[in-house]
What does this fold into?
Amino acid sequence: MRIDIDLAACAGHGQCAATSPDVYHLDDDGFVVDDVTLAEGSDEDAREGASACPENAITVRD
Ligand code: SF4
It folds into this structure.
């Protein structure tokens, strides 16, 4: 699995990290950082967090 984050598209809604806090992380201003945590078995979590983004800033590829 590969996760691409379009940092320029991120508007700081924080929904990705709210939905999947073990995968996505925010900076102090609430914008996602390009440093995801992909542990064993967290694929579905990663997909749900990406789907929660209103800006479609996160793309998950198998
Ligand atoms: S949900 Fe989308 S817009 Fe909001 S912080 Fe995450 S990547 Fe950025």
The pocket of iron/sulfur cluster is lined by residues 10-16, 31-32, 52-53, 55, 57-58 (CB under 6 Å). The two ends are 4 Å apart (CA to CA).
